[in-house]
Amino acid sequence: MEFNKPKQTVAEATRTTNYEGGEAFEPADPRLALYKRTINQLLEGSFYESDDEQLAAVVRRFDAAAADNSEFVLQLAAYARQDLYLRDIPQVLLVLAANDDRFKDNSDRSLIREWAPAIIRRMDETATALAVHDQLFGGTAPWPLRRGIEDALVTMADAYALGKYELSRREVTLYDVFNRVHPEPIDDDQEVLFERFMRGDLDDYPDVEPLPSPNTWETVISEHGNTREAWETLIEDDEYTLPIFASIRNLRNMLEAGVDEDIVVGHLDLEAVRYAPLYPFRYYQAYTALQESDVQAPMVERWLEDAIDVAVGKVPDGLGQTFVAVDLSGSMDQPLSRNSTLRLKEVGALFGAILAEQGARVGGFGDNFRTVSMHPETPVLQRQQTVLGIDEEVGDSTNGWKALEFLRERKTTVERIVIFTDMQIWDSTPFVARDDRTVKAEFDAYRDAVASETALYLVDLASYGDLVTPEGYENVYNVSGWSENVLTFIEHAEDPMQVIDEIEAVEPA
Q1: Model-level pTM?
Q2: Using CA atoms, how far apart are residues 482 and 336, in angstroms rounded to an integer?
Q3: Contact yes or no for 344/462 (Cβ under 8 A)
């Protein structure tokens, strides 16, 4: 959910809610229950659970975890922000704690003030924290929360951060943060900086010079438009920085504006791909966007192909003992959304190809199921095409249970099974299963006969729903909606008690 929303927002989008087993399994350990809800945010943007319902689940699990170990909820917030790179949910946990009597302490050594800088890691998050408080509680934010926001703000404040995160079109602006928190500058230079930020554009202070506009790629394009000159300035002038994510997202814009592909490729850096927090799907999106445009840029396309292969290294380790089944039925030909031409089966096949890098076995199902042979040294896109190549052979139905039958009959042991599909194939309702053969029944049979500890992930690529762990099936995950972070989710969903130990070792500094 979004807290510091643009002022232009007229109404919240209406989304369908699916309660099928939604609250059926509640971990006995309250820390684990809150952790499971928190890592759901790795898939943020894909829930059809309403904002109020989602928040109610967080509040309920927060309350139980705080009663068990109050500091754990702040450790989890810091872990979610710093290790999982989540944004809003860490601020939610911080604000909930700040308004909870169990954390009531107005001294300089309060837990809220101590942990806030570990949770608020970017300047705009100071406004997000206040926006969360406004929405959940209203009124004046508690003193420890205001002081914690102040501590985070003065640590991060420089001319660039203040200019970039002014947030003038948000409900809570950075000016609001200053007026509500009243941060004390840490030295004379910061005192001048704060005065320029707060008074530099006011007619009542003509002698105060405003802060200059930050030299970001957004300001350059905003001022000069999507032109060849603007993009070449960003690429070639050391005064500016064009981050790799912005570069990948705007490759088509650059080329359509007339930037020579030699210049574009010269700017791109495969070594940067190894360290960028981007999974292969981002490069694949740029690749398909170029293929669908009128731009002829074979050098850039080849670079993107290489980048996809390099970015596979960002995928969590230890997923090799995985069996992937991709739904290749007729309905999987539909696009991801109204604004995308990527087909659902393309995405499923890409995930399968990525996991094959670590040795996962991959196949596809429709009327029938078939495995495909992949060598991990084969390029990712070639592996993806291998999966899509059996499309016509397997047929148009959605018999996902045949993938599990394949494993059971061959007594193949795997640590996890991942099914990429476009519908809930867990339920044995008539419109899902035309006979008594279901994914549920086959998975039960497989665990009884072959591997009792195997985990099952049902990734519903089309429906945008919540994550469900049905009662009695602790190792079954129904991931409704898709995200490139699905693979990270798998990493963090398994062996959660080990992660709990890691969280409890987190320090505020």
Answers
A1: 0.76
A2: 9
A3: yes
